[in-house]
């Protein structure tokens, strides 16, 4: 848990507020126009992490998360590490049975015969940075299953998110993915809590931020149209396509560092779309670029202070 001695103070001066509100209306119109091209349902939530400015479209509706839920799972694992119930160096035995080859799993490709001992730190890397489905289910086994993660989400005040099924269960049934759902505004609140280290240590927050920044997940979504130098910590999620040609989930959520050092939390869910994979990714990229342009233009002066104790941030 965050230290009681922690103090975080934000002071802001908004320059040209009326102009900013006008730009926000324009951003909403632009995003809604992009979303219509999905021919399905799109959920969006944006939050300026320094100023609290929020915009959402279908923000209170439920969307299937797919692999986006590997982010809250990782938060729970790191909470258990912070609590001393797990350690990053702790080795977990993984049997061959836990490494099926009919799912996305770089871990299985590296160890096709299974029966390995792998650290929790490495499992987190595979699950978050490589979006490995088998590593994710091993972590679910270690922490006691999806319901334990769900309970943790409730304990930190996050409603509007449901974590009920493992990767294997989603693989076995098309309908199972809809039991792992999330409201865009709930995910934006979770990103905000994570960014502020409200419920994780600074060390755990930094580790997960690093894993999300070094993600090997698709670079054509949030990152797609941004500057190559842009820093993006994110987690994608993608469903299969049904026999009717419908993709239930093409998602990306994360935190963008803006050119002036401010941070933007962004959630984009593209659901029940008949569009091609490339088109669905492009919709996320266009929305992210529109948000980047909008928040980069608004001028803020802000001061962030943290209490320093014993030479460390508290």
Radius of gyration: 19 Å
Order of helical and strand elements: EHEEEHEHEHHHHEHHEEEHEEE
Classify the helix fraction into a percent range: 25-40%
Strand percentage, roughly? 15-25%
Number of helical segments with 4 or more residues: 10
CATH topology: Beta-lactamase
Overall CATH architecture: 3-Layer(aba) Sandwich
Q: How would you characterize the largest beta sheet?
A: 5 strands, antiparallel
Shape: globular
Number of domains: 1
What is the level 1 CATH name?
A: Alpha Beta
Q: Report, as a whole number of angstroms, the end-to-end distance.
A: 11 Å
Q: Name the structural class.
A: alpha+beta
Strands of the widest sheet, in order across it, are 3-2-10-9-8
Which helices and strands, and how do they pair?
Blueprint: E1 8-14, H1 17-36, E2 41-48, E3 54-57, E4 63-64, H2 70-82, E5 91-94, H3 106-110, E6 116-119, H4 120-129, H5 133-143, H6 146-155, H7 167-172, E7 181-182, H8 184-195, H9 202-213, E8 231-238, E9 250-257, E10 263-271, H10 277-297, E11 300-306, E12 308-309, E13 312-313
Antiparallel strand pairs: 1-11, 2-3, 2-10, 4-7, 5-6, 8-9, 9-10, 12-13
Helix pairs in contact: 1-10, 2-5, 4-5, 4-9
């Amino acid at each position: 848990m965050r230290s009681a001695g922690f103090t975080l103070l934000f002071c802001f001066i908004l320059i040209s507020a009326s102009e900013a509100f006008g730009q926000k209306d324009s951003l909403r119109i632009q995003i809604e126009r992009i979303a219509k091209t999905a021919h399905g349902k799109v959920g969006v939530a944006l939050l300026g992490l320094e100023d609290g400015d929020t915009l959402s479209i279908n923000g209170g509706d439920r969307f299937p998360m797919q692999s986006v839920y590997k982010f809250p799972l990782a938060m729970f694992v790191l909470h258990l590490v912070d609590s001393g119930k797990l350690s990053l160096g702790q080795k977990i035995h993984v049997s061959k049975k836990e490494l099926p080859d009919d799912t996305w799993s770089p871990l299985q490709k590296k160890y096709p015969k299974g029966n390995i001992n792998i650290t929790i730190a490495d499992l987190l890397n595979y699950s978050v940075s490589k979006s490995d489905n088998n590593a994710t289910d091993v972590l679910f086994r270690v922490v006691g299953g999806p319901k334990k993660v769900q309970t943790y989400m409730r304990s930190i005040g996050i409603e509007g998110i449901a974590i009920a099924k493992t990767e294997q269960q989603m693989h076995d049934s098309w309908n199972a993915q809809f039991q792992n759902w999330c409201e865009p505004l709930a995910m934006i609140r979770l990103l905000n809590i994570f960014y502020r280290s409200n419920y994780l240590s600074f060390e755990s927050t930094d580790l997960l931020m690093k894993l999300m920044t070094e993600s090997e997940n698709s670079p054509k979504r949030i990152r797609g149209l941004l500057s190559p130098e842009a820093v993006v910590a994110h987690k994608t999620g993608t469903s299969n396509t049904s026999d009717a040609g419908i993709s239930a989930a093409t998602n990306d959520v994360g935190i963008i560092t803006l050119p002036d050092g401010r941070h933007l939390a962004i959630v984009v869910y593209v659901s029940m779309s008949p569009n091609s994979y490339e088109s669905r990714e492009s919709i996320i990229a266009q929305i992210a670029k529109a948000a980047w342009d909008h928040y980069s233009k608004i001028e803020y002066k802000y001061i962030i202070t943290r209490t320093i104790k014993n030479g460390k941030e508290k």
